Amino acid sequence: MKKILFTLALLVSFSFLSHSQINIKVPEGWFIMTEMTDYNKRVNLETAVGKDGAIKIKNFDKLKQYNVLFSYAKYDVKTHFGVSPTVNFAVIKNTQNWVFSDFQNTTKTFLTQLENAGLKNINLKQSKSVYLENGKKVYKLQVEYKLPNYNEEIILTQYNYFITNKMFAQLALIGIANDKCKEAFNEVLNQLSIVDN
Question: Which residues of 154-185 are buried (b: 16+ CB within 10 A; e: fewer)?
Answer without folding.
Answer: bbbbbbbbbbbeebbbbbbbbbbeeeebeebb
